[in-house]
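Class prep. Protein, please:
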Amino acid sequence: MRLSDVVETSRRVAEAGARLEKIRLLAECLAGAEPGVVEAAVGLLSGAPRQGRIGLGPATVYAAMPAATAPASGLTVAEVDAWVDRLAALRGPGSARERTRLVADLLGRATRAERDFLARALLGALGQGALEGLMVEAV
């Protein structure tokens, strides 16, 4: 599943006013996901990565935010999920620096829309109304 599909769904969910429309959009998106990435897609769409707390705060994300973005979309949900696995596993001396580097690498491969979405999703600040209850119904 392409990350751009998740980003577009998130945008449409944020614009939708009706609860049933939000659920329909989420269900449509998740129906197109490969079985191995559904959980990761749900986590991204709800702003709560499946890995739980990954040690990122706004300062880290915004320090890692590149000025330039990728010209075309190429990231997949599976790639983002693997990146978040690596972030979640970081511990000990040097982990803050490595975390910033990993986030910068990820955001540098993203288009502007993907970068902005990932920053908000990783910080749990999507503001699209895709809360847990909507996700449960969509799945």
Summary: The domain at 3-138 is CATH 1.10.3260.10 (DNA ligase i, domain 1).
